Amino acid sequence: MAISVCAACHESFASLGSFDKHRTGSFSQRTRRCLSVDEMQAAGLTKSRHWHFAEVNINFGSLRKASQAVA
Ligand SMILES: [Zn+2]
Q1: Do residues 70 and 44 lie in contact, with contact meaning Cβ atoms separated by under 8 Å?
Q2: What is the pTM of this model?
Q3: Tens-place pLDDT, residues 20-62
Q4: How many CB atoms lie within 10 A of CB 37?
Q5: How far separated are the first and last CA of the chain, in Å rounded?
Q6: From ligand 1's centre to the CA of 71, what distance in Å?
Q7: How far away, in angstroms, is 4 Cα from ligand 1 center?
Q8: Residues within 5 Å of ion ligand 1, judged at the Cβ atom
């Protein structure tokens, strides 16, 4: 899996999609910046080893519950 590390805030991202999500503001108005940790969490990102979309964790959790129900 390709990890994207941000040159500005040095956070690492598990996908280009999650990397893009943490950048906000406008290039033309020169307000381009990184989201803060709180803002990233509010945007649906979560951090385990790297930042990624929180949905991934939810899927892991439901998979685990499903396997426990079978066992
Ligand atoms: Zn950044």
Answers
A1: no
A2: 0.69
A3: 999 999 999 999 999 999 999 999 999 999 999 876 555 555 5
A4: 14
A5: 31
A6: 42
A7: 10
A8: 6, 8-9, 34
